Amino acid sequence: MNPDIILPPQVAWASGVFANGPLIRKTTRVADLHAVFSDNDAWLGSDPQQSVYDVEMFDSPSGEGALYVGVTHLHAGKIGNEFFMTRGHFHQRREQGEVYFGLRGCGLLLLQTESGDARLERVTPGSVHIIPPFTAHRLINTADETLSALAVWPSVAGHDYAALAGGFALRVFTSANHSQGWEVGHG
């Protein structure tokens, strides 16, 4: 007896494009990011329909022990002098971790504990980021091209955006005074 050979879902590593699987797609626009950026007037003056980031994920089974796989495509852009970023979140089930893999572009991963300790990691093609339990996370695009990162996380983790209603402890702003083109400020 010959077993069936199945072609599993695929990801194009250079672009983050998925194939061979049922997909869920979500676009987050400027209008969806109320109170995320520090310059509210610049946010109000921006095109509310402009896409800030798109998420594609395989429509996978959920439940205890199951994993989701998705790619965030964070577009290049700014609101005021702050780079485009994802909303950022803790997991509803705080004990759940996550893994990010940088695919294309250049940016930062902002990590913050529940006590407010924050740090940044550079995201580049090939970078691997282990997001520990009890840690909020946000992607920030500091370049002029789309930043794409593949993520793997437990399907039971959930998202808790409300815990960060006051924002993260750190913010990343454009800067002509620094060679990397950005500087860190406090939230």
**N to C succession of SSEs:** EEEHEEEEEEEEEEEE
SS content category:
mainly beta
Instruction: Report the major sheet.
Output: 6 strands, antiparallel
Based on Cα principal axes, name the global outline: globular
Strand arrangement in the largest pleated sheet? 3-4-5-13-8-11
| Percent of residues in beta strands | 35-45%
- Count the strands? 15
Tally of individual helices: 1
Stretches where pLDDT is under 50 for at least 5 consecutive residues are: none
Helix percentage range: under 10%
Rounded to the nearest angstrom, the radius of gyration is 17 Å
Mean pLDDT: 94
The span between the termini is: 62 Å
Structure overview:
The chain has 187 residues and is mostly beta strands. It has one helix at residues 40-44, and strands at 10-12, 17-19, 23-29, 51-58, 67-74, 78-79, 82-83, 98-104, 107-113, 118-123, 128-131, 135-141, 147-154, 170-174, 182-186. A six-stranded antiparallel beta sheet has the order 3-4-5-13-8-11, with no helix packed on it. It is globular, with a radius of gyration of 17 Å.
